[in-house]
Amino acid sequence: MLSFREIEHKFQLESYNLNTVSLSKIDENTTNFESPYKVSSDQIEFKIYPMADDFEDESIPILIRFIIKNEDFKLELEYKALYSSKLTITSDFSIDSIEPVVFFTMSESIKNLSISIIKDVVNCKVDFPTFDKSKLSKINDE
């Protein structure tokens, strides 16, 4: 199986666009939130959907969905990203193998936008989980 570093080297972010932003408050009457407002990693869902049938092309479009759902609101961000790829699908490689790389390349943009939106909703500082590249690579290399 390819290591995280090998995949990271062969699968590079070319460009991305924010496609959709959706925010739904669970209770519209809630106006007071604990400060700092904490978002935990178990409230976060991250999914990728390759928008190509195969990885034989050099540019692979990927749909990225990022959702934060807790007792106060549901925030959905959707991006379309284009990755340059030198990967081929083999028995040692699957689509799931690229998820940590996609997450890592997009995490800073997603985090910044999420914090900005949540801060506008809760009107206080937002604590967001830190995602460590070494943890992502360990998950992928298992």
Strand order of the largest sheet: 1-5-4-3
Oligomer: single chain
CATH topology: Bacterial Protein-export protein SecB
- Output the helix-strand order: HEEEEEHEH
Structure description:
- Residues about 135-140 have low confidence and may be disordered.
- The protein has one domain: Bacterial Protein-export protein SecB, CATH 3.10.420.10.
- It is about 30% helix and about 35% strand.
- Strand 4 and strand 5 form a beta hairpin.
- The protein contains three helices and six strands; from the N terminus they run H-E-E-E-E-E-H-E-H.
Short recap of the structure:
By secondary structure, the protein is of the alpha+beta class. It is built from 3 helices and 6 strands, in the order H-E-E-E-E-E-H-E-H. The model is unreliable at 136-142 (pLDDT under 50).
How are the SSEs ordered, and which strands pair?
Elements: H1 4-10, E1 11-25, E2 37-38, E3 44-50, E4 59-69, E5 73-85, H2 99-122, E6 126-127, H3 133-141
Parallel strand pairs: 2-6
Antiparallel strand pairs: 1-5, 3-4, 4-5
